[in-house]
Amino acid sequence: LLSAEQEAGLIEIRAAAPSSSLYSAARTLLAVRDEPVALLLDADSTDPEAVARRRSSAEEVVGDVASAAPLRVLVAVPALEALLFLGPDPVERAFGAAASDERMLELGRMNPREALKRLDPGGHWWTASLNLVRALNDGDIADLRSTPPIQELLEFLRELHCSEIAANTGT
Q1: What pTM was computed for the model?
Q2: pLDDT tens digit string along 34-62?
Q3: Which DSSP string corresponds to 78-94?
Q4: What whole-number distance in Å separates Cα of residue 78 and Cα of residue 158?
């Protein structure tokens, strides 16, 4: 979804698990390297209070070192993979018409890893996720770029770019 920004050198995507490793990497980038950081976290819930707790917890753990560089914490509800189930077309292209029924799409929006496990004959959610990503076309990607949290991430990048231009021009 962010390949254009990655190819242009505007972003560097890193993954870390568990959360403590992600938070440690973010703290290092903020405090030691003075680099802006956007954390994209799975909420692992659809409950608004749980989502808010996930965001505030990350902001507390990482935010105390963010005074030098910008930090944005973004939370995908319930998980980033849920975006892959917003419409039936990519699911149908990847797994056939039977896989794109409304029950599977609803499961994917609520519990994407379970839906992905069901779509892969071996029960491996990451394999099904990769197949689904490969089935995305340009229209799907454009649609997904307009959804939270991707839109929020793109806005953060625009803000950074504008502030960099202002700093370089003295305005």
Answers
A1: 0.87
A2: 889 999 999 999 999 999 999 999 999 99
A3: S-GGGGGGSSHHHHHHH
A4: 25
